[in-house]
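Researcher: Next sequence.
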Amino acid sequence: MPRANVNGLSLNYEVLGDHGPWIVLTGGGRMDLEVFRPLGEHFANAGNRVVIHDRRNCGASDISITGEGSEEELFADDTYELLKQLGALPVYACGGAAGCRMSILLALRHPDAVRGLLLWWPSGGKHATQTLAQNYYGQYIKTAQEGGMAAVCETPYYSERIGQNPGNRERLMSIKAEDFIETMTRWRQFFLDSLDLPLIGVTEDAARSIKLPACIIPGGDDIHPREVGENLGRLIPNAEMHHLPPRPTVEAGPGQEETSRSERQRPYADVFLPFLEKIAATTPG
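Model: Next structure:
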């Protein structure tokens, strides 16, 4: 799989499709690029070029616990640089949950880079913000305080990052525990400062400033409350709202995991692809 040197880091990425408009697809949480590959393939099969990648500190990309601002802002800036290297700008930014947040930050920080937004399951509200702040940062701050960087390397998340990219162990161990704690505390504060915002890291005024066409599929649980997605749709002036029925719980049998994942992600493609066609039909030239 190809890798790109982006802002001094090696990022794992792949391009699906060989022609058509560019889409950058980012999944939720700290998921690696494989999780939403089926959705990317749906897009590519419909005549688009799709960039999927592991963000810094995710998947098989390099770990870097440093930098100005929040980790979320670094994700957006890295993505912009990767897309620029690939000649993929301007791009449709598509993302779910954390990927939704990254897509919006990409549009806000690099307005000329984004043609439209395809968003599902936005996360926000006090419960989501506090839970994610703990999941992404708080637990690792505590681990570093109690056991230093060797203990951080042994946590399930970071041991998996080392398994996918062995050089990440050396990168982690080269960080002083106090510096790791300081950076993670700053990154956590980005979330805690968002307790009363419509979306983590995005103010009402910032959301209203987005003039791009946007398609939003609200979520339906405590981390991705339906009302957060609906409110975001009201704030972004050119947004369309689409509700999907709750996802059924299906037990996949042997060899069926990828098939069922593709089937679960197809409804998102069935919403987003007609939206892209509509934009293309109404765009001059």
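Model: Confidence is low (pLDDT under 50) at residues 248-252. Residues 220 and 283 are 33 Å apart (CA to CA).
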